[in-house]
Amino acid sequence: MVRLIAAVVRKDLTLTLLRGNGLVQALLLGLLLFFVFSLSQGVGERASPQSAATVFWLSSTFCQVLIFSQIYALEEITNARFGLLLVPAPIQAVWLGKAIAGFCLLLLAQLVFLPAAIVFLGQTVSGALLPALLALLLVDTGMCALGSLIGALAQGQGTRESLMSIVFFPLLVPLLLAGIGVCSQTLGTESPDDADIWLRLACAFDAVFFGAGLLLFGFLYSGDD
Amino acid sequence: MLELENIAKLYGDKVILRNIRCSFFAGSISLLLGKNGAGKSTLLRIMAGLSRPSAGEARYTDSAARSRGIGYLGHATFLYSGLTALENLRFWSDAWGSNRCDDDLLSVLERVGIMPYAHELAGVFSRGMAQRLNLARVLMLNPVMLLLDEPFTGLDEVSRTVLHKEVRAARARGACVVLISHDAVVDAPLADRILLLADRGLAFDGAPSAYAARACMEDAPWCA
Questions:
Q1: Which of B142, B160, B182 is the last residue before a domain boundary?
Q2: Are B189 and B136 in the same domain?
Q3: Per the database record, which ranges form the ABC transporter domain (chain B) (predicted)?
Q4: Does residue B165 share a domain with residue B134?
Q5: Segment-wise mean pLDDT, segments of 10 residues, chain A, 225 residues
Q6: B92 and B136 in one domain?
Q7: Å between A180 CA and nearest CA of chain B
Q8: Distance between B165 CA and the closest CA of chain A, angstroms
Q9: Helix/strand/coil for A205
């Protein structure tokens, strides 16, 4: 199972970063959000930390939807999905491999979004960095666990693809609130909420999405019926 | 190795297959014949576990078939166009946990005659070359169950001979091979057994000699 996970991660990263369009579309969409939001402010005006954190996580979410659509589409061109189904290993390895590949790509995108938030929205880091880093990892983990599951749901089904984000966004709300809560504190918001509460909430939802992925992926990623 | 018990398949109201009962054994080559739309590919996909039968069951009696995987070569190539031929084989080898080194993979490419193109992207391959690479993908895994759906499509005479040789080698090492072909004249000598699908059911299941006799009675062109 570990070998299948490693093979899927290596293949998806190679195809996305070295041989395909890379993250161009996902990055452009995310950056566009920062740019458009920056236009809503007056000249020299600074967006509130909460707004900046919200735009950051919204960009990350849109970016993540595109990433998972892209990496699940890799199997659909020549029906390699059927080849993966025949591998003598638990099929959940594909879900986990794609989640890990998506996690790496999302982190790369966020490396671009972070300076964009500072430049376009005039932010400064004035709070503790460690909780924000933890929140980044925990929220990204949950987003990728769920994104990999819903990417599987959307694969090969053009008509279902439009439903993906509709199903996806409400499920992500608790995780996004956690990310926004912690990151806005790092950017300077005085919040009565302790970051620990948000981090524990993110952990709980990570566990839920991991459990759902392990249980449901086999039903979603199947043959032609 | 594999038992099909009263397999039926429906797409909506349309019956594709009904009441298919037969067994497949290790160390044998079965040739599956039938007209277009007879349900050959559907039956092969059911055997591979890629499609669920509407009724009946496809049961592997040999646990090795499941634990060592099923080699399936269908109409689609399962290749990644953005990876080179060698990278494609490396991916599938790693995914199956077969732990082959690059020299092993290159020797497989040599067997199917595309070693000089090992570092070319699969996306620029012609249909025939992609089919050869697809064949290499299946052969390197040494599966105990080998399901080949019209594997000769797009292959020239030399490749066809190579494939015949590889199919015989698979039988010799104890694999169960099921092969779909439209060219009974050329491929029947390869087989130990012929199955004919017609009228949504199994119209014939027997030795190639018996099938030849029956075909002669019906003035089939390959009787000579």
A1: B142
A2: no
A3: 2-224
A4: no
A5: 90 87 83 87 79 91 89 85 87 93 94 88 80 90 91 67 67 89 81 79 91 88 70
A6: yes
A7: 37
A8: 24
A9: helix
Instruction: Please give the distance of CA A61 from its chain centroid, rounded to a whole number.
Output: 5
B222 and B121 in a single domain? The answer is: no
Specify the pLDDT at position A56: 92
**Statement to judge: residues B63 and B91 lie in one domain:** no
Residues B57 and B153 reside in one and the same domain = yes
* pLDDT tens figures, B171-198: 898 888 999 987 777 778 888 898 888 8
Q: How far is A154 from chain B (nearest CA, A)?
A: 18
Q: Among B104, B109, B159, B164, which residue's Cα sits nearest to residue B136?
A: B109
Q: Please, what sign has the CA dihedral across residues A184, A187, A193, A197?
A: positive
Give the residue from A70, A74, A75, A78 with the most B CB atoms within 10 Å of its CB, the best one to mutate: A78
Q: What does the pLDDT read at residue A6?
A: 92
Most distant CA pair in chain A, distance: 60
Both tokens of residue A207?
A: 């566990």
Report the alpha-carbon distance of residue B162 to residue B190 in Å, rounded: 13
Mean model confidence pLDDT for chain B: 84
From chain A, which residues contact B within 8 Å (Cβ)? 3-4, 6-8, 10-11, 14-15, 19-20, 74, 77-80, 82-89, 223-225
Q: Identify the domain containing residue B129 by its residue range.
A: 77-142
Residue-wise pLDDT for B63-80, tens only, equals: 766 666 788 888 888 899
- Beta carbons of B97 and A4 less than 8 Å apart: yes
Residue tagged 């938030």 (tokens):
A117
Q: What is the residue extent of each domain of chain A? A: 2-220
